Structures are given as structure tokens and as C-alpha cells.
Amino acid sequence: MSKQHLGHTARKRFGQNFLHDPFVIDQIVSAINPQKGENLVEIGPGLAALTEPVCERIDTLTVVELDRDLASRLRSHPFISSKLNIVEADALKFDFATLMTDDRPLRVFGNLPYNISTPLMFHLFEFVGKVKDMHFMLQKEVVNRLAAMPGNKNYGRLSVMAQYYCQVVPVLHVPPGAFNPPPKVDSAVVRLVPYHTPPVEVDNVDMLNTVCANAFNQRRKTIRNSLKELLSEEDIEQAGISPDLRAEKLSLSDFANLANIASHKVGN
């Protein structure tokens, strides 16, 4: 299948794979369920596969697009250009808080480039207090990681941090043939709904992230060894956790307890 699609060549450096399957597109738009008056934001609209059907249901849509050619195409789109607020920016660096208007929370969606999906998730978690929900097309493996529970091979730092911030709901499996060019992996759509109150109490979220990073960067080690820079064996036992466990066996609540003890040690 050609990488040339409607006159635009998919750019490898932007991780572009364009969605073209009408059935899949309809299912995704139904899952998002956009309503008039909502503050909707699409990341990486590409060739407008989701943008067009979403715009059929609403009056205004903000799109964040890094590729200048695609942003230019959207500006001259014959049907939807008048509904679009086009932001030419790198979503990884963009301040999504600037899109808050009239205190309306953001509803964020997109077919995310797979090469930036994980760092983009962490960037978006910084804005969860301003977000009602997020719907993303991701590599299926990333959706599996977002939703994974302790003991699962996909369970890791992304699982713990995502589940601290959001309810994670896998929505839809999407085969490679739904894209042009077809990626080498399966995809999936996930719904992330930020919690008003996180499910566990954490004194310092940066410390939770640090504890998770240290624990999972050396996931074959026991937490006694992987967390020794942060916590003593006694500290770990104080949290009610065996120092002989590996990271993948610890729950979000366990990581919260460890992070809180580590925070108190450094005086945060």
C-alpha cells in the first residue's frame, strides 16, 4: 500500500499512520460521543479522519498539529475549517491549560503517534485537573500497559501512574489494516477518565514517579535492591511490604505507601 495518501506522504519522523477504515472511525467517534458546547481538543488530527466526523456533531474543535503541511491543509479544508481552532505546536511541550475557556474541562482525543505516546501520556497527566476525559488510539501493547494489574507482565511505571491519575477503560481493538501505511503492530482505543480524588493518598507525586521508575527500571531485582537509594529495608517493612518482592507484585497502594515514607525521609 502506498505511503502517499490524499496527496500527503506519511512522515516517519512524526510517526504518521493515517486512519482510513470508516467502520473503525465510526466506532471511535461513538466512543468519544462529542457534544455541542464541550471543550474538545484533538491531538494530531492528521488527514482529519476523526476531525471531520467529530466536527459534524459539534461547532468548534481545537486541534494541536505539529506537521505544518497538515495544519495548512486543515486551514483550507472545504467543510470544517470554520469550526477549527488550529494550534501549530508540539503536543509534548504544549501547555494544555491555555485551552481552558469558561471553566469548561477539556475532552482530549487523538490517534497518537506511537513514538511519542508514553511521554505524551505523562505530559497530559500534569493537566488532569483540567480534563474531563481522554480517548486515544495507541499501540495495543501501550493500552495493555495502561490497564495492567500487579502480577501481569505488562504492569509497570506507566500502569501505576496512569491508574493513580485516571480510571483506565480499554474500548476497542483496531487491526493494522485500518491505517495507511499499516503499522506492524495492532492498535487499540483507550478511555482515560481523571479522578476528582485520586484512589490513594500521595504526599508528593514526583516521589511516587521516582519510586516507580527506580523499582521498574530494575524489575528483575527485589525492591530491597532497586529502592536502596531511597528506602532502607526497615522502611519497606514499615510500609507493610516484604523487601523480597519485585516491583511487578506491588499495588498502587503499596507504591503510594513507599513514596510517602520516602517523602518524609527527605523532608518533603
From TrEMBL:
Described purpose of this protein according to its UniProt entry: Specifically dimethylates two adjacent adenosines (A1518 and A1519) in the loop of a conserved hairpin near the 3'-end of 16S rRNA in the 30S particle. May play a critical role in biogenesis of 30S subunits.
Protein name: Ribosomal RNA small subunit methyltransferase A
Catalytic activity field: adenosine(1518)/adenosine(1519) in 16S rRNA + 4 S-adenosyl-L-methionine = N(6)-dimethyladenosine(1518)/N(6)-dimethyladenosine(1519) in 16S rRNA + 4 S-adenosyl-L-homocysteine + 4 H(+)
Keyword S-adenosyl-L-methionine: yes
SUPFAM superfamilies named among the record's database cross-references: S-adenosyl-L-methionine-dependent methyltransferases
Residue ranges occupied by any Ribosomal RNA adenine methylase transferase N-terminal domain in the UniProt entry: 24-196
Family stated for the protein in its record: Belongs to the class I-like SAM-binding methyltransferase superfamily. rRNA adenine N(6)-methyltransferase family. RsmA subfamily.
Top-level EC class: transferase
Key words, A-Z: Cytoplasm, Methyltransferase, RNA-binding, rRNA processing, S-adenosyl-L-methionine, Transferase
Known EC number: 2.1.1.182
GO MF term set: 16S rRNA (adenine(1518)-N(6)/adenine(1519)-N(6))-dimethyltransferase activity
Subcellular location: Cytoplasm
PANTHER family according to UniProt: DIMETHYLADENOSINE TRANSFERASE, DIMETHYLADENOSINE TRANSFERASE-RELATED
Binding annotation for S-adenosyl-L-methionine: N17, L19, G44, E65, D90, N111
